[in-house]
Write a structure and sequence with these properties.
Blueprint lengths: L1 E4 H7 L15 E4 L12 H12 L5 E6 L6 E6 L10 H27 L5 H14 L11 E5 L2 H24 L9 H5 L20 H6 L14 H19 L2 H10 L1 H11 L3 H7 L7 H18 L1 H4 L13 E4 L6 H8 L3 H7 L5 H4 L10 E4 L3 H4 L19 E4 L5 E4 L8 E4 L2 E4 L10 E3 L6 H7 L4 H7 L14 E3 L3
Antiparallel strand pairs: 1-2, 3-4, 3-5, 6-7, 8-9, 10-11, 12-13
Helix pairs in contact: 2-5, 2-12, 5-8, 8-9, 9-10, 9-12, 18-19
């Protein structure tokens, strides 16, 4: 364990008066240098920088810093004018002005160093700051490495609140795939837990998959469904991607960085600089390994620290949302969304709000939901209406003159001339008939395909991982299956 005094680094960086708000309470952080997510000394300033971006600096503050030596922070200044999600024109001009001010100072200092001109007291202070945070010689090119970063404390806190809805499910998915549970924190870096987040290069969803990568990891991405937008389905894809990356690259820092830079890129980095993420961040100059890739792992570790200790960074309190508790239905046959909604007595619009992966033409019924696709239902729906929706082509047409009485979960009855039978007993034309006849189902087996996991087998067969383990006499933490293996999935 290494103890880093963040306050000393940030004080050295010359932050403006009052800009660190609560920084003293976060001065000493113990970083693990040996676990699954180690923080080598080389990237500790990067982790500290992102801790402050996420948990201390508000969106009304902007840090001007060196984009390679993250411990060199020239100023943390307050934005002028009203604070909103984006910059106003006035604020954009102000940021350009402050950046130009710092660049001019750095260029002037570099020129004096090159020609041997005596340095003023201010020059000497600036030089000492750079050399302390970045080493001798770092003054050369410092003006070109200047970058600004706005705080996102409010956005991170909102993401933390949303994470309460998904965190238990994400952790279960990580466990089922045999990867560390704390990978559930990755959406803080990718999307701030915004399910409809989209990037300028085409990544989408809470886990920010590109279309091709989403399809590679089992997601349907077409004009009917975009399962990248389903947080639960895409979490499973992320877990399987990270498992494959870890197997190829050998450790979690490289696997996590590959989520941004790609497995091939990180394999090249490892071949050149070994498997130490600190050495790679400091020395790797691969194509497209820019600021985002260099900082991706550090920002993940920082997000994990802030999310793990909300009371430390958000003493005012965090209102976590209630955990996800909806029923998961896997369709056996293709059918319109309206058919599913009618079967469970739920408005189609309500289902659409739960099923973020439905495209417009699926919501409005122009195309059916495909067989094998997931439909999320309000909690308790599948207990209240136990029968699976009948195949759409076999739906029952009830004469307009006939009255159909369907028992609901409270024991009262609803009478409708057009309702579909669900469960319980239906009275039709004065005769009492069972609404459905339950036959004993034969035992079913699933043959494991390449890249399938215990979780994927369970979901595709509409059962829980725990039940799948029990049916196959697996231990409570056993996730090992092999291609070609026959797994019992019913009976």
């Amino acid at each position: 364990m290494v103890i880093l005094l963040v306050a000393a680094v940030l004080a050295l960086a010359g932050c403006s008066s009052g800009s660190m708000r609560r920084g003293d309470g976060l001065a000493t952080i113990n970083y693990d240098t040996r676990g699954s997510f180690p923080v080598p000394k080389a990237i500790q300033p990067n982790v500290d920088f992102w801790r402050y971006v996420y948990g201390v600096w508000s969106r009304g503050q902007v840090a001007f810093h060196d984009n390679e030596h993250m411990g060199v922070i020239y100023e943390v200044a307050e934005l002028p004018g009203p604070i909103q999600e984006g910059y106003t024109n006035e604020q954009r001009a102000w940021v350009r002005s402050r950046r130009a001010f710092h660049q001019d100072r750095l260029r002037a200092l570099e020129h004096k160093m090159r020609v041997g001109t005596p340095l003023t007291a201010a020059d000497q202070q600036l030089l000492a700051k750079i050399e302390k945070g970045a080493g001798k010689g770092a003054v050369y090119g410092a003006s070109e490495r200047l970058r600004s970063q706005r705080g996102v404390r409010e956005r991170f806190k909102r993401g933390l609140e949303i994470s309460g809805r998904y965190d238990p499910e994400f952790r279960a998915i990580m466990r089922a795939n045999g990867v560390p549970e704390d990978l559930a924190y990755l959406p803080h870096v990718e999307s701030s837990f915004q399910a409809h987040a989209r990037s300028s290069v085409g990544a989408a969803g809470m886990w920010q998959f590109m279309p091709a990568t989403g399809r590679e990891y089992g997601m349907r991405v077409d004009r009917t469904l975009d399962e990248r937008l389903d947080p639960i389905i895409s979490a499973d894809g992320a877990a399987r991607y990270l498992l494959a990356a870890h197997r190829q690259l050998g450790n979690w820092p490289l696997a996590i960085t590959s989520y941004n830079h790609g497995r091939g890129g990180m394999a090249n980095a490892r071949a050149q600089h070994g498997d130490d993420i600190g050495e790679i961040v400091r020395h790797y100059k691969g194509r497209a390994f820019g600021f985002s890739s260099r900082n991706f792992y550090a920002s993940f570790v920082a997000a994990r620290e802030v999310a793990d200790h909300p009371e430390r960074y958000f003493p005012e309190g965090v209102q976590f949302e209630q955990p996800w508790s909806h029923d998961r239905l896997v369709l056996r046959t293709a059918m319109p969304a309206q058919h599913v909604a009618g079967h469970y007595g739920v408005p189609t619009a309500s289902l659409a709000r739960l099923n973020l992966h439905w495209r417009d033409q699926a919501v409005n019924g122009r195309v059916p939901l495909p067989a094998g696709s997931t439909v999320w239902l309000p909690a308790g729906s599948m207990h209240r209406v136990a029968a699976h929706p009948p195949a759409y082509r076999d739906r029952i047409s009830v004469p307009a003159t006939a009255a159909l009485v369907v028992r609901n979960e409270t024991g009262s009855t609803d009478t409708s001339a057009s309702a579909e039978p669900k469960t319980g007993t239906a009275t039709l034309a004065g005769k009492t008939k069972p609404a459905s006849v339950k036959a004993s189902a034969p035992v079913k087996y699933h043959v494991v395909k390449p890249d399938e996991t215990l979780y994927r087998v369970a979901v595709s067969n509409g059962i829980s991982v725990d039940k799948l383990r029990k049916l196959n006499q697996l231990g409570p933490n056993d996730n090992t299956i092999r291609v070609g293996q026959r797994l019992r999935v019913s009976g």
